[in-house]
Design a protein that fits this description.
Length: about 220
């Protein structure tokens, strides 16, 4: 009986010490987990949950003097799975005035990141990337260029269909003074192959729900 009790006691101590030693989440609400603590500004962070209880966190980062996009993966205990200050997703030229963007997790626990930058001759265009849990760039090192035109294109948003495809919607303006003039939509397979051409919707306010209804009707 003493031997059994002693073994049980050691197990409890080991579990308690292991949890305390390896868990990164603080039990003190005044002490938060630093996802990135390098120089410069880290702005507009977004988070998406994975099926195992972990998460992806992405943000804009100007540690190098201009904004770049970074991504970090945390396990359920808050341990960083990649480099301490994140994985560089894109350091293509970026506007100094950031617009909204999006992050979501697909059915295979890949991070899908959609944002804009000015790599196309200074034009603000939308791009979408898929990053695997191991940090691989599934849709190429430069992602997918959704609509390379001279129009001002902002605020890409992501949605997932029941069959696992990814939908990206964003604003297109014929001039920089007519934001919201048009909206376009593209559906992308998990492989990154574009399976629905960009088509023009009538100039009006369209929500993500309406976009999904349009897809379902196709």
């Amino acid at each position: 009986m003493k031997s059994l009790y002693f073994s049980f006691f050691l197990t409890i101590v080991f579990v308690t010490v292991s949890s305390t030693t390896f868990a990164q989440w603080s039990t003190n609400p005044a002490i938060n987990l630093a996802v990135c603590d390098t120089t410069g500004e880290q702005a507009l962070a977004k988070i998406g949950s994975t099926s195992d209880g972990g998460s992806y966190i992405s943000w804009f980062d100007n540690r190098s003097g201009s904004y770049a996009v970074y991504l970090q993966r945390l396990d359920p205990l808050g341990n960083k799975m990649w480099a301490p200050n994140g994985l560089l997703v894109s350091n293509n030229s970026q506007s100094s005035s950031l617009v909204d963007w999006d992050l979501m997790v697909d059915g295979n626990d890949n991070a899908i990141v959609a944002f804009t930058d000015t790599r196309n001759s200074g034009n603000l265009n939308p791009f979408v990337y898929a990053i695997s849990p191991t940090g691989d760039f599934l849709w190429g090192p430069n992602g997918i260029d959704l609509n390379p035109t001279a129009d001002f294109q902002a605020n890409p948003k992501l949605a997932k269909t029941d069959d696992g495809n990814i939908v990206v919607a964003w604003i297109i303006a014929a001039t920089r003074y007519q934001v919201g003039l048009q909206k376009f939509l593209r559906q992308v397979q998990n492989s990154g192959e574009q399976i629905k051409s960009v088509f023009n919707l009538q100039p009006k306010v369209i929500t993500i729900l309406m976009l999904l209804n349009l897809i379902a009707a196709e």
